[in-house]
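Hey, why these numbers?
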Amino acid sequence: MPNLLKKAVPIWVYWLALLGLAAALVAFGWVKGSTSVRAEWDLAEAKRGAAESRALAEAQSTARKVEREAAAKVAALDKQHFKELQHAKNENSALRRQLANGAVRVRFPAYSPGLRLSGDSLSAVLGDGAAGCDLDPAIADALVGIAGDGDTAIRKLTMLQDYVKGVVLPVRGSSVSPPMEE
């Protein structure tokens, strides 16, 4: 009987069954492998997303810290320059009051061909041998006002320069380069 079984099934059927089994194993490995690779990809994507989230949170935290430091620097600069500006305004106001009441006079050396004074008289006038004149108090007050306005403008410009040097450039860091001269 064993011979009958061998002769009843042709050899190509065995080969076909073996080929089918091999194809099934390859297909199973392919599906299992792609599932494994897909799982690895998903895991890598999740890790990358988590790393990006951490980096974003850290960047936001750093930005908030830089903003707080910049605000503190601006407040300190504002306080310092406001104090200096008030001091200068007070000094100018005091000088204007002294000019108005005559406590301070603005004198300057003058020469007039019609003025004939001896050397001793000239020394007595200004103390250095030159004759002098007093400015009218209103003119002196106007000159002090002009000088005070110029001083205020210079102080404001200095504050702006300090702001740029102390706040803007450090915040931008090394990404800012000075303009190139042509």
Notes: The radius of gyration is 47 Å. The helical segments are 2-8, 11-101, 119-126, 137-172.
